[in-house]
Amino acid sequence: MHQVRKLGAMNRLYRRIPLRLLASVTGAVTLTLLAAACSSGSGSSSSSPTTSPSPSTSATSSATSSATAAAAADVPLVVYSAQGYDSAMTKAFTKATGIPVQLDDNSTGPLLTQIEASKNNPKWGLLWVDGATAFAGLDTQGLLLKGFEPNVSWNSLGTASVPSDKSYVPTGVTLMGIVAYNKAKVSKPPTTWAALESSAWKGQVGMNDPSQSGPTYPLIAGVMNYLGGVSAGENYFTQLKNDGLIIHPTNGPTLQALTSGQINLALVQSSAAIGATFTDKSIGLEYLDPATLLPSAIGIDAKASPQVQAEAEKFVEYVLSAAGQHVMQTGDPTGDSLYYPVLQGVNPLPSLPSLSSVKTQTINPYTWGPQEATINNWFDSNIVR
């Protein structure tokens, strides 16, 4: 579940509660309302009085609450997202709640760069991308709201993906370490990471750039985790480069390189690879042993106003509702909709293989997340260039 702006099929990449006029409120009630409105903050709260208010006080309090709620609903929730279904989701959320959304849809790398550049004056309300490592890195910098967990029933994938400090919320799982291959040219694709280094695949392997493609860093970290450390992983990717590894920015261009014949093996995200087979029957899939579990998640800006944080929490709750899960599974049918759900009672789409048939590993996001910038810089300097 990039994140990455991914291209569907072969190229997925590529309000408000109206403010009511308080007519017919006159005299002292009007003055009281105006004073209350001028002194209220952006957030809204309520308390139970210890004595029964007079009818005049009750009317004023009710009108003030309505004005405050209307003002709150007029504040747009800024959503940074690399999900293929994000436009459909934000529209459905606004329709359901009346909360306006300003969507910034981009690849994961540029979105994280924007967050880093504005961390002293954040412009975002929530981030929704693939890769728990990205959120762990933000969490260690104190940039994520902690302690929020929606009231849902997690399945085993969901339970395993919730961080102990509840600084981000999982929304689905995909896999990294998937080889999409040209069946006309490859009869026996590699099934292990070691086999991928064989000279038989020289000049035939392609993958994404982790500085652009969010799911690609977890792939790199997964290889390093599997091989025993950063140095072993650097040696592995150096060998792939020496054998002619070809780098493209994201899933879409890498898959295009496969269909055009530039490469015969493409290391991409499972959702993109499975979606590619829907439109190109010459593409086969192989899950390398082990594939790395890749949670998609939502994190909320720790420096946002209480009002924005409350809106962001409502967004998370909507995503994980029955209506929201329907949008996730229909909003990008040849791309990000091809995920494994994290909720009890929600089944993956039929085109996904059973996870029990795939050998997988989980990497610790708090081990690998803080190293993301350093490892990506090394990869770009030594492998991409």
Question: How are the elements arranged and paired?
Answer:
Blueprint: H1 27-39, H2 55-73, E1 77-81, H3 86-97, E2 101-105, H4 108-117, E3 126-130, H5 132-140, H6 156-161, E4 169-182, H7 193-196, E5 205-208, H8 216-227, H9 230-242, E6 246-248, H10 251-260, E7 265-269, H11 270-279, E8 283-300, H12 306-319, H13 322-330, E9 360-361, H14 365-368, H15 372-384
Q: Would you kindly provide a written description of the structure presented here, covering whatever features stand out?
A:
This protein is of the alpha/beta class and 385 residues long. It has 2 domains: 77-173 and 295-353, D-Maltodextrin-Binding Protein, domain 2, CATH 3.40.190; 175-294 and 357-384, D-Maltodextrin-Binding Protein, domain 2 (3-Layer(aba) Sandwich). It contains 15 helices and 9 strands. The chain has helices spanning 27-39, 55-73, 86-97, 108-117, 132-140, 156-161, 193-196, 216-227, 230-242, 251-260, 270-279, 306-319, 322-330, 365-368, 372-384, and strands at residues 77-81, 101-105, 126-130, 169-182, 205-208, 246-248, 265-269, 283-300, 360-361. Strands 1, 2, 3, 4, 5, 6, 7, 8 and 9 form a 9-stranded mixed beta sheet that branches. Strand 1 (77-81), helix 3 (86-97) and strand 2 form a beta-alpha-beta unit. The longest helix is centred in the first third of the chain and has 19 residues, at 55-73. The chain is globular. The two termini are 28 Å apart.
